[in-house]
Each structure stands twice: as structure tokens, then as C-alpha cells.
Design goal:
The protein contains 16 helices and twelve strands. It has helices at about 25-35, 35-40, 45-60, 105-110, 115-125, 125-150, 190-260, 265-300, 330-335, 335-355, 400-440, 440-465, 475-505, 530-535, 540-550, 560-565; strands spanning about 10-15, 75, 90-95, 155-165, 175-185, 320-325, 360-370, 385-395, 555, 570-580, 590-600, 615. α7 runs antiparallel to α8 and α10 (about 335-355) runs antiparallel to α11 (about 400-440). The longest helix has about 70 residues, at about 190-260. The radius of gyration is 37 Å and the shape is elongated.
């Protein structure tokens, strides 16, 4: 076998389909660590254990273990992460000088007391949100299960047997036994259980972020349904007033037709205008029912009468200027981005789990028990027996299974990285879309109000000219129709304005109550291997690590991004054919059989692990 050494500035891992690997310097270091005097102090038969370990490691010498990669993960969503958003109206800003509205709790952002009451009901009763909360408890329990793997499992058993040598045996033997056994307890020298804990912690944090996403969506949907119901009530009020006006117009037009003053056309148009107004009433009533149903579903209970909104609420927030902050703040406030980040960290931990599988698995097992042919003599000293000993399982030949599992873990990490970058792009697009909607909304409203003034004056002039006998009633009917349509448009635009405020708050990540302390699980148990090697962590370190794990990514400088790119592994694949064959049996050789060699090279030193738009995942 040949060896490709790992050096300070360059390293290579070569994998072929033969799956034959040299023993790395890292393996030798691990043998030396395992053979340290600390273990000798713990075990009476240390010489035997060291010899057994050395034998196991020598048996594994043909397995090359992938080099530990502690370089930062560089995410490149390709958006202007540190530049302000574009396209805002007079009520919207984007700068780092003022805090983003996403940092406000929903209780402070929304000022409408009825709406706040409905949101509180929704957070208490909504089943989707309850399921999201329960998912957190499930993830916490799963973390505890993983943490318990650092403790030994002790089982007790007892039994009674009675047997005879043959059918003619008249003196069958009886046997009683009681045993207490330590099941195979894995010593985590290679960090497999620790990596599983890291993975479980990141899965827990991803679940909490998913709950925050559900909360943000629920609050936004309640607020939008509240606004829809309010403006549906306003549309109904406008339509009913228009019906009354149209009924008077139809009465006048009919009387003038019956008196022979006007032709039949004005009365027909007045009747059509009345029917259109009645249709508007029906549409508004349907919209009210739909909005009430949506609101009732979201809050998970009947809507209290005192929380029904007034028609055309003008403000649901006391905010005057809506500051969107900078795109980089989405990394901290958007829970879906945080969820994708935690999934990326979990995938990184899974790579370490796959890497640890290359090392020998070292376990301890012991038992103590008593047995006797007589129940009275069962617990006498002579009936006691015991056993104790370590065991080592070494991967020698697996036909490439470990390599495939490691490749799967690496590819999954790349997939989660792409998902993380995609979540940032989605967040940026959603904020930009809301800002684009708001950019001209104020001007549209101003134009619509000017139209209303215009048509009100047109109606007054047409009505005066009609009463003076200068023009016919058709001009009055036209002015009424135009004024009604404009008033409906104003209500639609006012609703869009309210909804855009809600959507901007949601798109920026507002409503997750990020200021509320989170209960992050920390390891409660320590593996014996960590105690033996002196790597056990204190309670303060555990808390610090948990807080660090829950932190969000940071934005790197262009220079650091270039350095990270240069330090990334360069993967090359070469194919060496061993035979050319004719698959189709047409006299032409059209396929090759050979050996594929995959080579990964690291050009720079490994740097501190940080989940790194360029964005560095700490």
C-alpha cells in the first residue's frame, strides 16, 4: 500500500473503487491517546486493553479516514446583503440607523386593541400553532434520548429452570438465577455521540424556528383577515347607501318617463344601476361571511362580538415610518432562514457522525449474578459470579459502505447549503415585493381621492343642470356610477395599504417574539471517555456552547470570503479504463470498465469552525 501524507499546507484523500486505504497520522495519534496512562488508572487490565486496541487499529490500517474539515461554510445567495432596499414610499425607510420593525413584538407593533385580542385568542387556540409547540417538546425529548446515550444501561433479570436428563430421570434439577448486567456501553473517543448530540440540538433549534414561522404566519393571517372583514363591512355600508340612492334615481326616471318628459332609456339605465348596486351588496355580504369564517378558523373559536372590527379601520398600527432595516437583518429575524441555517449545522454534525464510523467502536460490558439449585442458597457468597471486559469492533472491509455513507452526508450538507441560500433569496424577494407594492400605493390613493372629488363635483353639476332643465337625467346617472366605482376603488386601496403594512412586518420576520428567553437544552451527562481523557466540559461551557449554537450567521468581508473560497477543497475524479467492451454486440466497442478515483485536496490550513453573502455559517 502507498500513502499520501497530510501536511500543514496541503492534504489529499484518495479513494478508489478498491477501498484500500493507508493508516493516517491521525489514527496513530488516536492509538497513542487511547494508550495513555489515564486509561491504565481506570482499568485493571490496561495492558490487555491497549494491546487489543493496537491490534484493532493495525487491522484498520487499510482504511483511510477522511480528514476532519473545520473550515467555515460559505453561503452565497448573491443578493446585496449590506445595501439598503430599493423602491420605497414616503412612509418606508431602509437603513441601519433606525431599528427594523421586525424587532418589535407584535403587541407593540399592532395598536388596534380588538385585533390584539383576536391574535391572543389565535395563539391560544389555533391547532396548527399548538402542533408546532408540541413539535418543540418532541424535539426536546429526542435530544434527551441522545444525551442519555452517554450513560450506561443496567438491566436486571431473574429466572428459574427445572430440567431432567431424560424421560426416566426421577430427580430433575432446579436452578435459580438473578443477574445484574451492564449492556454494551460505548466509549465516545471519536466524538460520534457528541456529534449526534450536536445534530439533535440543531434539530431542536430548527423546530423552534419552525414554530416561530408558524406564529408569524398565524399573526399575519389573523391581521389580514381582520382587515378584510373590516373593509368588507365598509363595502357593504357603501353598497347599501348606493342602493338607496339608486332607488330614488329609478323612481325619478320612471316618473319622468311615465309623464312623457324623458324617453325610456334613462329609466332602463337607472334600473341597471340599481341592480349593479344590489350585486355589490351581495358580493360584500359574501365577502363578510368568508372573512368571518377565515378569522374564526384562525383563532380557533367563535369571534366575540366585542372584537368585530369597525368598518374601514384606518390604522391597525401606531407606526408612522416603517423601517425595513438592511437585508442582512433577515438572517436574524426571519425564522425560516434560521431554520435553514440550523438544518445546515445539523447536516455538518451528521458528517462528523459519518466520519466517526471509520474508527473502532469500543464498548464496555459487565455482569454480576447469583445462581443456585436451591432458592435458600441463592444469595450465599459462593453463588456469586461476575464478568467484565471491553470489546472493540473495527471496520476492515465493507465494500465501500462507509465511503458511501460519508458521501451521502457531504451531499446532504451541500443540499442544505443550497436550501439555506435559497431561503435568503426568498426572504429578500418577499420583502422587495412588498416594498414594490407600497412604492406607488400612496400616489394611487392620492389620485383616487382626487378622482372622488372630481366625480362628486361632476355629480353636483349634473344634478343641478338636470334640475334646471339644461341636461337630461343620463348625465346624473353617469356621474353616480363613476362616483360609486371610485369610492369602491378607494376602499380597495385603503385595504391594500393596511395589508401591505401587515405583509411588510411578516416578510421582515416580525411577530416571533425573539426577545422572549428560549429554553435551550444542554448536555446533562458526560461520556466516560471524556472523563478519562480530561475533555469533560463545565456547566458554564455547556451553556456557552448552547447559546453559540443558537446564534445566527454573520456576514463576512469580501477579503475573508475570498480566503475561504481559496481554502475550499478541490475535488477531482479520474477514470482509468481496464477493459473496452462491446455491449450491443454490433462489432463496435461502446463501453468501458475501469476504476474511478476520487481525489480531494485542501490547499490551506483549517480554520476555526464557524456556522459562515456572502454569509459565514457559525
Amino acid at each position: 500500500m502507498s500513502s499520501q501524507p497530510f501536511t500543514t499546507n496541503s492534504a489529499a484523500v484518495v479513494t478508489t473503487t478498491a477501498h484500500v486505504r493507508p493508516m493516517s497520522g491521525e489514527q496513530a495519534a488516536l492509538v497513542a491517546r487511547f494508550a495513555s496512562p489515564t486509561i491504565a488508572r481506570v482499568r485493571r487490565n490496561s495492558v490487555r486493553l491497549i494491546s487489543l486496541t493496537a491490534l484493532a487499529m493495525s487491522m484498520a490500517a487499510c482504511n483511510t479516514i477522511p480528514k476532519a474539515d473545520s473550515r467555515p461554510v460559505l453561503a452565497e445567495p448573491n443578493i446585496p446583503i449590506e445595501q439598503s432596499y430599493g423602491a420605497f414610499d414616503k412612509e418606508t425607510a431602509s437603513n441601519a440607523a433606525q431599528p427594523s420593525i421586525a424587532g418589535q413584538r407584535w403587541q407593540n407593533f399592532y395598536s388596534d386593541e380588538r385585533l390584539k385580542g383576536l391574535i391572543a385568542l389565535g395563539l391560544e387556540n389555533n391547532k396548527d400553532f399548538e402542533s408546532a409547540r408540541l413539535a418543540i417538546e418532541k424535539a426536546r425529548a429526542q435530544y434527551q434520548i441522545t444525551d442519555i446515550n452517554d450513560l450506561p444501561t443496567i438491566n436486571g433479570s431473574g429466572g428459574y429452570t427445572r430440567q431432567a436428563q431424560n424421560r426416566t430421570d426421577k430427580n430433575p434439577n432446579s436452578s435459580y438465577n438473578v443477574n445484574l448486567g451492564l449492556a454494551n456501553y460505548e466509549l465516545d473517543f471519536w466524538g460520534k455521540i457528541a456529534s449526534l448530540k450536536d445534530q439533535a440540538l440543531q434539530n431542536f433549534l430548527a423546530t423552534t424556528a419552525a414554530k416561530d414561522s408558524t406564529q408569524i404566519s398565524l399573526i399575519s393571517n389573523i391581521a389580514q383577515s381582520y382587515a378584510n372583514l373590516s373593509y368588507s363591512l365598509a363595502q357593504l355600508k357603501l353598497a347599501e347607501a348606493t342602493v338607496e340612492s339608486r332607488e330614488r334615481s329609478l323612481f325619478i326616471a320612471t316618473k319622468r318617463f311615465e309623464a312623457g318628459i324623458d324617453p325610456r332609456l334613462p329609466s332602463l339605465q337607472a334600473s341597471a344601476s340599481l341592480e349593479n348596486a344590489k350585486l355589490a351588496v351581495l358580493r360584500a355580504q359574501s365577502s363578510i361571511l368568508t372573512s368571518r369564517n377565515a378569522l374564526q378558523y384562525l383563532i380557533g373559536a367563535p369571534i366575540p362580538n366585542e372584537l368585530i372590527p369597525t368598518p374601514a379601520v384606518s390604522n391597525i398600527t401606531s407606526q408612522k415610518i416603517f423601517n425595513a432595516g438592511l437585508p442582512s437583518e433577515l438572517l436574524r429575524y426571519r425564522p425560516d432562514v434560521l431554520q435553514a441555517e440550523y438544518n445546515l449545522k445539523a447536516a455538518g454534525a451528521n458528517i462528523e457522525v459519518a466520519r466517526a464510523s471509520y474508527f473502532p467502536s469500543i464498548s464496555l460490558a459487565s455482569s454480576i449474578g447469583v445462581s443456585s439449585g436451591s432458592l435458600d442458597d441463592l444469595f450465599k457468597s459462593g453463588a456469586v459470579g461476575w464478568s467484565f471486559g471491553p470489546s472493540i469492533s473495527v471496520p476492515i472491509f465493507d465494500a465501500g459502505r462507509l465511503d458511501a455513507e460519508y458521501d451521502v452526508a457531504r451531499i446532504e450538507r451541500e443540499q442544505t447549503l443550497a436550501n439555506y441560500e435559497g431561503s435568503i433569496q426568498t426572504a429578500f424577494r418577499e420583502v422587495s415585493d412588498v416594498l414594490a407594492t407600497r412604492a406607488t400605493l400612496g400616489e394611487q390613493l392620492e389620485a383616487q381621492y382626487r378622482l372622488q372629488d372630481n366625480f362628486e363635483q361632476t355629480y353636483q353639476i349634473a344634478d343641478a343642470r338636470f334640475k334646471a332643465g339644461i341636461s337630461n337625467y343620463l348625465d346624473v346617472l353617469d356621474a353616480q356610477r363613476s362616483l360609486f366605482s371610485t369610492q369602491q376603488g378607494i376602499l380597495d386601496l385603503e385595504l391594500q395599504k393596511i395589508v401591505s403594512q401587515i405583509e411588510l412586518y411578516q416578510a421582515l420576520g416580525g411577530g416571533a417574539n425573539l426577545d422572549v428567553p428560549s429554553v435551550i437544552p444542554v448536555p446533562q451527562h458526560t461520556n466516560l471517555a471524556q472523563i478519562v481523557t480530561g475533555t469533560a466540559t463545565s456547566a458554564k461551557t455547556k451553556a456557552t456552547n448552547a447559546i453559540k449554537a443558537a446564534g445566527s450567521a454573520r456576514v463576512t468581508t469580501p477579503q475573508e470570503a475570498v480566503a475561504i473560497k481559496q481554502s475550499q477543497a478541490v475535488e477531482t475524479t479520474t477514470f482509468k479504463p481496464t477493459a473496452i467492451v462491446d455491449v450491443n454486440e454490433d462489432g463496435k466497442k461502446d463501453a468501458a470498465v475501469g476504476v474511478v478515483t476520487e481525489e480531494t485536496r485542501f490547499n490551506n490550513n483549517s480554520v476555526e469552525q464557524v456556522p459562515v453573502t456572502q454569509i459565514v455559517e457559525p
